[in-house]
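Hi R.,

Here's the chain you asked about this morning:
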Amino acid sequence: MATLRGILVLAAGAAWFCNAAAAGDEQAVVQTLEAYEQAWSRHDAHAVAGFYYEPAMRVGKGGPAVRPTRADQEAFFDGFLRGLVARGYERSAWETIEVRQFDPQSAIASGITVRYRADGTILERVAVTYGLWRTGEGWKIFLSTTHPPETALQFR
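And here is the predicted structure, written out as tokens:
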């Protein structure tokens, strides 16, 4: 009986450790995406592109688009950010963000980002969902899509 109790305690401890490790990894994904939003707020296409895996896919209204390199990402985001700024974009911040880690190397994140004008009013709210892969350089986005706020994924 004591041996069975010891095994159960050991199993419970291992389960707790695995859950704590996953929670720490999920927090690392959140921190990565917070830094990503800061790059957006600086209007820095080069920094934004640095958060992407090579290659990466964006799913937009026109369908999937694969961008093989970070240089391709940078060219896209340079034009996209210029267009946002022309519409009055100043900065963005997460309203909500949720992460689910699948295994030690992959995770999905979904949430709502709010894009603000310089006067603090809301330009737009958009939901975004990302597939992320852990690399030697940290978590990188390999899949992204933007969608209506009411469709943001909720994991818990």
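One quick note: Confidence is low (pLDDT under 50) at residues 1-21.

Cheers,
M.
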